[in-house]
Amino acid sequence: MATRGKKSSYQFRQNLSFQADTPNFLKKLQNAEDEKKVTKPKEEANPNVNDELPSIEIGKSGISETEAKLFLELQHGADPEKRGLKRKELEDFKNLRKDEEIDLKKNQICEIGSNSKIKKAKNAKQPDKNISSKKIKNSNLLSFGDEEEAQVFGLKQDIKDNLYTVDDETILYPAGSNVLITQKGHRKFISVTEKGDSISSLTVSPDRHFLAIGEKGSRPSINVFDITSIRKRRTLYACSETISAKEFISLGFSSDSKYMAAQLCGPEWILHYYAWDKGKLIATINSHSDNPESTVLQVSVNPSDGTVIFVLGDNFVKQYRYTEGELLKIEVDVPKNVSNSIFKTHSWLNGDFVAIGTEDGKVLILNPGGSITQEIQINSTFLSKISLPASNNPSVMNQNICSSTHQMQQNLGASQSNSNFSIESIVVTNTGLIAGSKNGNIVCFDNSTDIETGNRKYIPNKKFLVPDGGVVRTMAIASTEAHLLVELESNQILKIPLIIKQEEQFDEIKFEAISEAFHHGQILGLDLCCRKPLLVTCSNDKSIRLWNYVTGQCELIKYYPEEAYSVSLHPSGLYLLVGFSDKLRFLNVLMDDFRFFKEFSIRGCKECKFSNGGHIFAAVHGNTIQVYSTWTFENICVLKGHNGKVKSLYWSPDDNFIVSAGADGAIYTWNIRDLKRESEYILKTCAFSSAICTPNGKVVYAVGSDKMVKEITESQVTCEFDGGIVATQICLSHSGKMLFVGTANGSIRSIKFPFTSDPDSFQEHFAHSGAITNLRMSFDDQYLFSASEDGCIYSFRVSEKEERGIKRERILLFADEILITKSDLEEKNVLMTEMQSTFNELKLEHEYQLRLKDLSFTDKLKELTETYSQEIEGLKILTSVLRTVKDKEEVKHEEEVMHVKATHGQELHEIESKYNSQLMAEYDKFQEAQTLMAMHQEDWLGQVKEFEFITQKMLQDTQAEYENKLKLKSAEISRLQEEMRQDSNEFAEMIRQNEEDIDIEIANLINKYEKKLRIEKDEGARLKGENGIMRKKFNTLTKDIDDNKSEIEKMRDDEKKLNFVISTLEKEILGLKKEVNSKNTVYFKLKLL
Questions:
Q1: CA distances (Å), origin 167, targets 164, 181, 219, 228
Q2: Percent of the chain with pLDDT over 70
Q3: How far from 778 is each of 301, 518, 647, 1081, CA to CA, in Å?
Q4: Please, are residues 74 and 29 in contact by the beta-carbon 8 Å criterion?
Q5: At residue 845, what are phi and psi to the nearest 5 degrees?
Q6: What is the pLDDT of residue 43?
Q7: Which of 50, 525, 707, 813 could form a disulfide linkage to 566, CB 3.0–4.6 angstroms apart?
Q8: String of b and e for 781-820 (b: at least 16 CB within 10 Å)?
Q9: Cα–Cα distance between 679 and 659 in angstroms, integer?
Q10: What are phi and psi of 343, to 5 degrees?
Q11: Which residues contact 245 (CB under 8 A, 6 or more apart)?
Q12: Long-range contact list for 441-445, CB < 8 A, 24+ apart?
């Protein structure tokens, strides 16, 4: 079991159990309001958890209360061995985080850990990845994803054999980056790990206890889960990290569920054989054929011999046997006329036989020797010989399933070709096999033995026809073989009953729809309305579908001759905008149809959007935006400014502004009231894919090809951070409190809000396996919807962090009115009137017929009563007569018995006398034979004695001869033993001397090196002491130098001062000398006078 740090991947139950039949929406809202009034106990704050971070959660745990109490006891120091736990469970409990908490409320357990990739602050703890929990929490203590309220519309169709049954009520299939386990409307999720790119393959063990999921990645991996507990058991990796292959394309368990075969894709095409319960790769081999253009399709393990692996390619078959750590090839003799066929699927039959389906409609039966024993060609002639069940009436079945193929044919005016008999799937039953062809024919075969040859032979028993030419892609049979599940190319799953009760033989067999008809292509557009819980989507499968996200049902499907690029649903839910390649069409949403009403000359409209009020709408025409009135269809304005294609439109809540983002790197905010550009932001190095604004229209948030999430205010980027991956969609709640981002790898990120530049302030959840194309939030901020290129739609319920629901100022009530045309209404009224009159007539006729039948039954009852009374009297008389006859017969029988006894006694006496005489004669013969035997015995004893004497003499001679030889050999052995003892003594002496020499040499070396070591230690100690003295002297000298330097600096300062004083005094001396000279001059002058 994979661990991260000290965290365990232990799970009690998977947190993901979807409930398709959700309760009434108004009841949910009322319950949410009631829950708000209940005060909850305060919980201790976890310093390592940032409550400001958003999260996604889908659901509550499915653990039982007993398991939760057991976990709590173990967390508080209880002895796990006394609780009866197994070794693996003990290890799981030991590895559990001490800070994981379980809260018992109403016998339900809160989630432990998280499966999402959570990026928090640097010092925050990371949650356990292996425990599945899907909740995106928001900064204002908001989250979305209560599993019981969420819905998933989709099925991952690029995986071969993507449908399995766990039991009669539980099925398993992939959707996006998750595997869904559904049971009676409840769903559990098994999520792909964050290291994996997407699901590439999956399989279920024969005992239906384990699920293996192959994941794409730089190093492909396989995760094995326990289906019951949804606990990861093992993670297996490809044989090397340097391989170029990125995915496992096919997986297969052995019959004992301990081994697994896994086929890697090209270019290596390496077949892996694992002992998965031990986590070991025990053998690998290149299973590809010599033809570089061929591909491997499937691998499987022989159910009766777990060492034999069968590999099916598009034009080759191979078998391998595991022996002594290697996979050895087993020769398979395939005729040339068969090897030219294109193989599609295969399955192991009972008795080591293999059934292979081909593209030209053949079912080939291979025996254990590898040769073909039977070839069944399924075509029109073959099917015409098999009668359909009396109830297999397509007109009846159409009433019970949602046949998207039938609608597509009606809209396109084309018919499905029945000439394609390619065998797409084969499943095995206890009595034979079932083959499904691409044109919708399902044929059941029974196993029998050919009387002439004694070989196994499969004989067709019955057939089913999928209605409206549905294309069979995968089949799976229930564990009890009570019914068959069929997955169609339209991504719908049907159930066909195989066991019919005797009283139902003449009733009508109906195909039951297990799931809705999902999109089977990339989803291009998605939109919601305000007044109804409706969701509209369009896909490149050329269909438009209307979903009810509360009931989880698809209410309307319609196919068109060309694909729709974009859709927008009016807030009332009564009108629909659809962008086609040639026109933009305005449609009325009727109760059973999308009715055309108006079209606009806008070609290839990739984005269109109704305003929040619904009175106007905007549509993209290349690099311009055209705004129209919803009621008059008047072109209000044309917004020009983009130099590239416009990728995104967003209306502000008050409908005064439109935010547009384009591939040219420009984001414009348009003022619709003043018909002018309010603000702009241009970054030509980035192609923006989505932009939104806050309710006041002042702040814009945008994502694009530069992997940045930007906050733009007044045409300037005020905040941004690098998400590390291209973001394709961004969504802001209508309350302006939650921000979500969809990425190119299918993940949904809940951004910390208010927006910050911290790149770690988001939580990431992987829901899809392709880039997210649309991200929308319902008008009451209760649901978040995401659509992706993988064809899946996820719906998450938004709630507070403490699961109290979002605070709403008012409860949004949904309308139940529908739109219907006057002609349809009149037609339905006329039809109802006719049906009412017909009903009244039938009622009167039925009452009259009932009265007639009552009278007829009364007369018949009287006649039968009289008849039975007469017959009873006759039987009484007959009984008395028979009793008299019986008494007479008993007397007669007793007399006959006495006569027979007397006769038998006389005959017995005669037989005894006869056989006594015969016995005496035989005794005389026996005495004679005994005498003769004694004579022969004496002769034989004489011969035996003579032979013993001769034998004894020969034995003595031989013994003497071999005793002489033995003495010679004994002497030779003694001599050799003496030589061996001498050699042994010499060898022992040599060993002793060598040991003494070695010991002396070792002692000398020890003394030498110990002496050297002591000298070195003394030298080291001396040097250490001198080093200390030198260091002290150095420090003293350094200090003296520093003192001298400082003293020198002082003296220099004094010198400068003295020099200054000297210069001053010199100047004074010069002045005094001049003064003296002048005075002398004056003196001499005066003296002369």
A1: 9, 11, 33, 11
A2: 80
A3: 48, 21, 21, 118
A4: no
A5: -65, -40
A6: 39
A7: 525
A8: bbbbbbbbbbbbbbbbbbbbbebbbbeeeeebebeeeeee
A9: 9
A10: -80, 150
A11: 220, 238, 264, 265, 266, 267, 268, 269, 270
A12: 441/378, 441/383, 441/465, 441/466, 441/472, 442/466, 442/472, 442/475, 442/484, 442/486, 442/496, 443/378, 443/383, 443/386, 444/498, 445/363, 445/376
Residue range 977-995: mean pLDDT, rounded: 89
Model confidence at 157: pLDDT above 70 = yes
Name the token pair of 682.
């241009």
Contacts of 675 (CB under 8 A, 6+ apart): 637
Q: How confident is the model at residue 948 (pLDDT cuts 50, 70, 90)?
A: confident
Distance CA 879, CA 196 (A): 87
Separation in Å, CA 587 to CA 562, 579, 834, 923: 16, 11, 31, 119
**How far is 1071 from 1051, CA to CA, in rounded Å?**
29
Give per-residue pLDDT as tens, 245-285: 989 999 999 999 999 999 999 888 999 999 998 989 999 99
Is 587 exposed, middle or buried, given 0-12, 13-18 or 19+ CB atoms closer than 10 A?
A: buried
Residue, of 1026 and 186, whose pLDDT is higher:
1026
Rounded to whole angstroms, how far apart are CA atoms 254 and 306? 5
User: Mapping DSSP to helix (H, G, I), strand (E, B) and coil, where does residue 938 land?
Assistant: helix
> Of 28-42, 343-357, 960-974, which range is least confident?
28-42
Q: Model confidence at 194, in pLDDT bands (50, 70, 90)?
A: low
DSSP 284: E
What distance lies between CA 639 and its chain's CA centroid?
46
Nearest CA-CA partner of 731 in 54, 149, 16: 54
Token pair 């077949």 is found at: 271
Q: What confidence category does residue 631 fall into, taking pLDDT thresholds of 50, 70 and 90?
A: very high
Cβ-Cβ contacts under 8 Å for 155 (sequence gap 6 or more): 162, 173, 174, 175, 487, 491, 493, 515, 518, 791, 792
Provide the residue count of the chain.
1089
User: Tens digit of pLDDT for each residue in 529-578?
Assistant: 988 999 999 998 899 999 998 888 889 999 999 999 999 999 999 999 99
Give the Cβ contact number of residue 737 at 10 Å.
Answer: 17
Task: Return phi, psi of residue 448, to 5°.
Answer: -145, 175
Cis peptide before 754 (omega within 30 of 0): yes
Q: Tell me the range of 765-779, 907-921, 923-937 where mean pLDDT is highest.
A: 765-779
Residue with tokens 């799976």: 476
**What pLDDT is recorded for position 775?**
93
pLDDT-based confidence at residue 508 (cuts at 50, 70, 90) = low
Res. 196 pLDDT band, cuts 50 70 90: low
The token pair that represents 881 in the structure block: 């007569």
Specify the DSSP element, H or E, that contains 864.
helix 822-1088
Name the one residue in this structure whose structure tokens are 């709590």: 72
β-bridge partners, 713: 699, 716
Q: Residue 703's beta-bridge partner residues?
A: 690, 709
Identity of the amino acid at 529: C
pLDDT at 988 > cutoff 70: yes
Handedness of CA 938, 943, 946, 948 (dihedral sign): negative
Task: Tell me how far apart the alpha carbons of residues 735 and 691 are, in angstroms, rounded to a whole number.
Answer: 17
Within 8 A by CB and 6+ apart from 599, the residues are 583, 584, 585, 586
Strands of 69-127 (E only): list them: 104-105, 108-109, 117-119
Q: What 3-state class would DSSP assign to 270?
A: strand
Average pLDDT score over the chain: 79
Cβ atoms of 108 and 60 closer than 8 Å: yes
Q: What is the DSSP letter of 414?
A: -
